[in-house]
């Protein structure tokens, strides 16, 4: 060992000749130059230079054997991991040093990857080699897309219903679903009368949606299932599950008539209340006392405020509303002397001459079990709901927008457009409601700022708006839509 060490020390500063071509080289265990060593040994032998990768054009996902389909953007880490797994079994005897993508034309259906590997050869010499592996994209339809094409694709459906003539609740749920990305697992979304249906490929995804709805809105659900097929050899059953979710028919600005027992259980509040917010529970306010605690959807009437007298709030009341006694007159009866007296919780917003929306109880025939049993002296003539602003000005000044779900159904008619504008105005007026919604700045719309047009209508501040992003990368973005013909 001492002799070998002394010989190695003696040869450290010398130059040897390659045993094959005679070129002067630094000493190495093989006594060969790199060029000759590569002609003798190919460390990439056994590693395939061309590999097939399966891609579904319908859902834009790649097959990760044996049966998993994953979505990967071009030149992403996920795609690199998938490609390396395809050749992992052939690289057990070499060491992977580096891997990187080489640019290819997006429609070529080719993915090229440059690999750098090392291996010990000939008396302990370490040889490093760089080579290119080409991955060929082949189209193959995944099982989920097969079921879609066969019209038998869904395993569970969530039927969301609300027996009302308005759609405010569904517009709000749409924004919550988009914010929490619960629509990604849905195979199809279909809008129908009185509700919307969500179709899923697994019962677990449908149950997740039902749990979300129960945490978001007051509702009740029922579950049923139907046997589709039964394999007697493996004792497996194929069911289709249906989840029926019924949302309570109350929304913001609805007037609710409580039963005497329920009103008593809520702290002896009045039976006629106004719904100021709907979350997982219903928030009600008594317009006569400002008492806030726990239902008809008549049409709004527009009134003009003639006089207002502030009223001190009850002892112990803390809130953002102000109690007031007001005298109003219908805008459709301005040529008459008919006036209405009522109490309202909008004293902090209303001034003499303002327009306000409300429900007319004095001239309405309301068929309600509990309202008909009430003392007529306790039923108000008018219940004021919200201050009225010029809608055309609000639309003109609105410089933000919301995202929408891609769903089947008829286009939005005139009544749907009116209800959607009502929902947008509710977002502008209720800051607490906006906290659960992603609001995006509308770059295509330039707001018109004018002091003469400012009627005091609430607006969404610029700090609450998000920039609408397009999730694309430098090579073309989300998955391999560029790979299609």
TrEMBL record:
GO terms for biological process: protein transport; ribosomal large subunit export from nucleus. GO terms for molecular function: ribosomal large subunit binding. Residues 1-22 form the signal peptide. One of its GO terms (cellular component) is nucleus. Transmembrane segments: none annotated. Acts as an adapter for the XPO1/CRM1-mediated export of the 60S ribosomal subunit. This is 60S ribosomal export protein NMD3. The lineage of its organism: Eukaryota, Metazoa, Chordata, Craniata, Vertebrata.
């Amino acid at each position: 060992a001492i002799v070998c060490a002394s010989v190695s020390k003696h040869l450290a500063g010398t130059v040897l000749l390659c045993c094959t071509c005679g070129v002067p080289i630094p000493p190495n265990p093989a006594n060969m130059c790199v060029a000759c060593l590569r002609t003798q040994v190919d460390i990439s032998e056994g590693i395939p230079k061309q590999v097939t990768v399966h891609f579904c054009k319908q859902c834009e996902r790649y097959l990760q054997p044996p049966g998993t389909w994953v979505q990967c953007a071009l030149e992403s880490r996920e795609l690199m991991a998938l490609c390396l797994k395809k050749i992992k079994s052939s690289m057990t005897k070499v060491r992977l040093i580096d891997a990187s993508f080489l640019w290819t034309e997006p429609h070529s259906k080719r993915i090229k990857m440059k690999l750098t590997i090392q291996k010990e050869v000939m008396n302990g010499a370490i040889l490093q080699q760089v080579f290119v592996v080409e991955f060929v994209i082949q189209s193959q339809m995944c099982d989920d897309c097969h079921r879609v094409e066969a019209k038998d694709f869904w395993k569970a459906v969530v039927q969301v219903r609300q027996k009302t003539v308005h759609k405010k609740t569904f517009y709000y749920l749409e924004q919550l679903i988009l914010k929490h990305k619960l629509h990604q697992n849905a195979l199809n979304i279909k809008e129908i009368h009185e509700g919307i249906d969500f179709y899923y490929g697994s019962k677990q995804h449908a149950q997740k949606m039902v749990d979300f709805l129960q945490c978001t809105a007051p509702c009740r659900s029922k579950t049923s299932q139907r046997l589709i097929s039964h394999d007697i050899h493996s004792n497996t059953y194929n069911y289709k599950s249906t989840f029926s979710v019924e949302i309570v028919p109350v929304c913001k600005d609805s007037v609710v008539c409580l039963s005497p027992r329920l009103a008593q259980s809520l702290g002896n509040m009045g039976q006629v209340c106004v719904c100021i917010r709907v979350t997982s529970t219903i928030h009600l306010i008594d317009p006569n006392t400002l008492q806030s605690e726990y239902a008809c959807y008549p049409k709004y009437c527009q009134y003009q405020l003639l006089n207002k007298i502030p009223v001190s709030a009850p002892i112990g009341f803390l809130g953002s509303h102000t109690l007031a006694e007001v005298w109003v007159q219908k805008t459709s009866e301005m040529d008459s002397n008919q006036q209405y007296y009522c109490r309202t919780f909008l004293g902090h917003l209303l001034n003499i001459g303002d327009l306000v929306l409300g429900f007319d109880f004095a001239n309405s025939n309301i068929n309600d079990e509990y309202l008909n049993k009430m003392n007529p002296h306790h039923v108000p003539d008018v219940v004021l709901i919200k201050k009225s602003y010029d809608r055309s000005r609000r639309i003109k000044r609105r410089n933000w927008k919301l995202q929408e779900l891609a769903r089947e159904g008829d286009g939005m008619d005139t009544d749907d457009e009116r209800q959607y504008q009502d929902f947008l105005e509710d977002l502008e007026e209720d800051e607490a409601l906006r906290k659960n919604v992603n609001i995006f700045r509308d770059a295509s719309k330039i707001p018109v700022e004018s002091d003469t047009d400012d009627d005091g209508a609430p607006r969404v501040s610029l700090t609450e708006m998000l920039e609408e992003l397009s999730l694309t990368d430098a090579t073309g973005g989300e998955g391999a839509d560029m790979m299609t013909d």
